[in-house]
Amino acid sequence: MNFPENLRYTKDHEWVLLEGSTATVGITDFAQHELGDIVYVDITSNGKSLQADEIFGTVEAVKTVSDLFLPVSGTINEVNPELEASPDLVNSDPFGKGWMIKMTVNNTDDINGLMDAAAYKALVQ
User: Fold this and answer.
1) What pLDDT does residue 63 have?
2) CA torsion, points 104, 39, 54, 50, in degrees to nearest 10?
3) Considering only CA atoms, which of 85, 91, 68 is closest in space to residue 14?
4) Which of 10, 34, 36, 54 would you call most buried, defined as having the most Cβ atoms within 10 angstroms of its Cβ?
5) Residue 89: what pLDDT?
6) How far apart are CA 1 and CA 94, in angstroms?
7) How are the residues of the chain apportioned to helix, strand and coil, as percentages rounded to the nearest 5?
8) Residue ranges of the domains in the chain?
9) Measuring CA to CA, how many Å separate 59 from each of 40, 97, 111, 113?
10) Phi, psi angles (nearest 5°) of residue 73
């Protein structure tokens, strides 16, 4: 499994890449592996301001549906348009083309409260 060092992670298996005040969010390699083949990603929270740990969407795999939890408080500005036609990008490239949302973070210091790669790796292994 892959644990990119430049990302932060949540206990709910989301990853975050912070660039300025914009965060890109997706699910981890571990999460997509556990879910199996992703068949649908449903994110209807575009344009909404949400608090950390609120549900921003769901991901549907062949066997289950899982909620997606916002890692930090902020406003969702963009949903990955490629996931509608190709939800399998979450399986094939979870840290790249399989990203889910881009958001403006209310307080960038909140990112520091998330796990680094070593802590997340210890959680899942």
Assistant:
1) 87
2) 30
3) 68
4) 10
5) 98
6) 11
7) 25, 35, 40
8) 8-105
9) 6, 16, 23, 25
10) -70, 145
pLDDT at position 74: 98
pLDDT for 41 equals 97
Residue entry with tokens 């449903």: 42
Residues in the chain with pLDDT < 50? none
Check: CB of residue 90 under 8 Å from CB of residue 59. Answer: yes
In angstroms, the CA 27 to CA 109 distance is 21
We find that the CATH architecture of domain 8-105 is Beta Barrel (2.40)
Which residue bears the tokens 């298996």?
A: 13
Q: DSSP string covering 69-84, please? A: E-SSSEEEEEE-THHH
Which H or E run contains 36?
A: none
